[in-house]
């Protein structure tokens, strides 16, 4: 089971921590602010008051044993960059850092961040995508050109099995789950038949996903 350390429990860090904690993961929350730490006791496995740029304190917490660290420090750009650097130097495999702007993001990548999140920009893109496509209910960008989408099954798929549709060969798209009402069929077999109103969770390149949606 993966263990997560969240550094900086502002709106972003707290939301990440709560979600992971509710999913049953071990979550260590760290903030310099005592009040934030107190609040975090409700939604983390442990919450500690530490200045993240103090390398020795982080070491004492055994942070190097965590699989993933999320740096939710935003306003204090210097602290965000130094914390990212310290975590990478300690050997944490996957560090996700929040950026305030493009330049901050660039520096975070150069510092070693494995993924940089621009919460407002990313949400703006997401909202625009949701608003302009009639079938796409939600999507997650995996890489600039690849996404996972949740899409209402287009008419041409209804009554056909995954094998008949052959989406993998025709569009290089993989259907990873089919939702029918309250039921969800994860990793559906080739014989699974799409019903009217089903929601598909599919992974593929953005152009190919768009083609499916427009068909
Ligand atoms: P948000 O917009 O997500 O609320 P903020 O930048 O306002 O982001 O909040 C970041 C959090 O990070 C705050 O709770 C702040 O106390 C914390 N923080 C800032 N600097 C440090 C630091 N050096 N070490 C630990 N936590 C920090």
TrEMBL record:
Residues covered by the RCK C-terminal domain: 134-215
GO molecular function: monoatomic cation transmembrane transporter activity
PROSITE patterns: RCK_C, RCK_N
Domain RCK N-terminal: from-to ranges: 1-117
Pfam families listed in its UniProt record: TrkA_C, TrkA_N
GO BP annotations, alphabetical order: potassium ion transport
InterPro entries registered for this protein in UniProt: NAD(P)-bd_dom_sf, RCK_C, RCK_C_sf, RCK_N, Trk_Ktr_HKT_K-transport
PANTHER family to which the protein is assigned, alphabetical: KTR SYSTEM POTASSIUM UPTAKE PROTEIN C (PTHR43833:SF7), POTASSIUM CHANNEL PROTEIN 2-RELATED-RELATED (PTHR43833)
Listed name of the protein: TrkA family potassium uptake protein
């Amino acid at each position: 089971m993966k263990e997560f350390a969240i550094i900086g429990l502002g709106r972003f860090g707290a939301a990440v921590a709560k979600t992971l904690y509710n999913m049953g993961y071990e979550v260590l929350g760290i903030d310099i602010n005592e009040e934030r730490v107190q609040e975090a006791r409700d939604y983390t496995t442990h919450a500690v008051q530490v200045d993240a740029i103090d390398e020795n304190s982080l070491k004492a917490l055994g942070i190097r044993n965590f699989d993933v660290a999320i740096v939710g420090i935003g306003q204090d750009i210097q602290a965000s960059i130094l914390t990212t650097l310290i975590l990478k130097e300690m050997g944490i495999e996957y560090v996700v850092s929040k950026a305030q702007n493009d330049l901050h993001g660039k520096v975070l990548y150069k510092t070693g961040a494995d993924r940089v999140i621009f919460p407002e920009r990313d949400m703006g893109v997401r909202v625009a995508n949701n608003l302009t496509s009639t079938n796409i209910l939600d999507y997650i960008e995996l890489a600039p050109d690849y996404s996972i989408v949740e899409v209402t099954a287009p008419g041409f798929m209804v009554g056909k099995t995954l094998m008949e549709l052959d989406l993998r060969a025709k569009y290089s798209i993989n259907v990873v789950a089919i939702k029918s009402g309250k039921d969800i069929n994860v990793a559906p077999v080739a014989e699974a038949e799409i019903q009217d109103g089903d929601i598909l969770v599919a992974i593929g390149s953005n152009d190919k996903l768009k083609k499916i949606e427009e068909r």
